[in-house]
Amino acid sequence: VRYRADALFDTSKGAYLYPNPEPKSYILEDASFDPLAYILKKAHQKGLAVQAWVVVFNATPREQSYIQQNYIYNNHKDWITYNFNGSQMNIDRQSGYFIDPGIPEVQEYLLNILGNLAGGYPELDGIHLDYIRYPESDLGFHPVSLARYNEYCQNQEEITYNEWRIMQVTNFVENAYFQLKEINPTLQLTAAVVPDIAEANVDYAQDLPECNVGLFPGGGGTQRLPRLIGYPAFELILKGKMLPAAKALELGIIDRLIPADQDLLAAAKAFLAEIQSGRADLKRPVQDFSQVDAIAEMAKQGILKATKGREIPGPMLALDSMHRGVKLSLEEGLELEKENFVKVILSNQAKGSINTFFIKGMTDKPKSMMTKGFVPKAINKAAVLGFGTMGRGIVIDILRNTKIPVIVKDVPEALEPGKAFLRKILGGMAEKKRLKESVEDLMARLTATSD
User: Fold this and answer.
1) CA 18 to CA 12: how far, in whole Å?
2) Mean pLDDT over each residue of the chain, to the nearest integer
3) Which of 14, 166, 380, 406 could form a disulfide with 120 if both were Cys (CB 3.0 to 4.6 A apart)?
């Protein structure tokens, strides 16, 4: 419904709260036609859900004739991202111009676009974000973003610029999620992501936090990596950082890079022959760990800052494995790592993180989460603590999808606004024939209390 800063929906519907200046798409021959309203009506008649596809940071098409008509190109050309050389991006290798996520006005503008869409179409089932990323690793260096990055490093903490880029994308998704849930608690928010974890992180600044499941490298990683590259291993392991291949080569993690246009197998055989003959320059320096106590203490304080003072087993025992392990022989260090890894994997925190990781991929098919022969107990009543944005959405889902009564608890002043909000949302669903029961019947199963 939004291809390149244009609209395949009626932007006037949600403009009362969220302005959207973008014009109807050039592909529409009849500007009065509302494709989204049409597909919603047809799909819902057949029981199909509709997610509106929204292209986010990719602001223009590639074709010059269409670029000249593009709203953002004509009105906010200064938002287009820069390369690391300080020039606005070239679209030769891209699918159009990208606007920079590191500009606050860009994020505010795009949040208004999403709010306009969700507010104007309360019957919408979901919104799917595409191009929710940077175009590539050497783009995203807009002067505004660079200035904000430098200020952040001076006043908050030192981070890499790619970590800053990741922060911009992540913050936008978080803000979009909470804004959309406030508008419509039942709305689904999904996104297109790059499937390769390292590529997503390094090239496109997409962070995939499900990679962190509360564990640490337990196959010798906490012992071999510090001995290979020294103190940088502490940060890589504790933060779960991923590196581009060139940086890994620079640090000494890998010994050789083969260009993509070369024969990998032939190059690997040639390198193996160099190793066998003793001609290969394998960098295996003896590391100086005389300052490891001080480094470990600094790392511990960094962990506690990130976890708000909680000693979470994963990072704390990973640090212990490295700190004490480098003072031992490799064999003794591996035994220490094994002991700590067992402690971590049996911890409640790791179990919870692993459980969450699998739940994320299985919630669409809840029966797949049940072991064979499992008979679930009947749920006769549901309780929800809190009647704010999230609580309201949970209550609506329970009322719509079950027959059980719901009791919700919050402070007295939150109860009436919460019930009024539920009536409004459920009323809108009833008008679109998306409820199996009347609004009154659903509300009759709700008890709101502050006791």
Assistant:
1) 10
2) 88
3) 14
